[in-house]
Amino acid sequence: MPHIPNHPSAEKRHRQNLKRRIRNRQIKSHVHGAVKAALEAISSGDSVKSDEAFRAAAKELSKAASKGAIHKNTAARKTGRLAARLHRTQSASGS
């Protein structure tokens, strides 16, 4: 059964929560797509393409964290793991 608020303040809070949920889902969707594109670019081996994709993903992650859609430590962790994967592939292909 859906949530049915009984007081005006609860109705407003419910409306706000629905709007924020939609906004957060859109932001998270952009983040997920950017991270996926970065992972694909990193696995392809093209260093220029993977650098650009990593920067785009890191930017999306930090924007999502600044807007509160994801926690700042989550964004930092995901960025760090992407960077580590990028550096591993670049050092493996470089040597």
Q: What is the gist of this entry?
A:
The protein is mainly α and 95 residues long. The protein has helices at 8-44, 47-67, 72-94.
Count of distinct strands = 0
The run of helices and strands is HHH
Assess the beta-strand content as a share of residues.
under 5%
| pLDDT averaged residue by residue | 94
Shape: elongated
Q: What is the tally of helical segments?
A: 3
Can you walk me through this structure?
The protein is an all-alpha fold and 95 residues long. It has helices spanning 8-44, 47-67, 72-94. Helix 1 runs antiparallel to helix 2 (47-67). The longest helix has 37 residues, at 8-44.
SSE topology sketch:
Layout: H1 8-44, H2 47-67, H3 72-94
Keywords:
single chain, 95 residues, mainly alpha, 3 helices, elongated
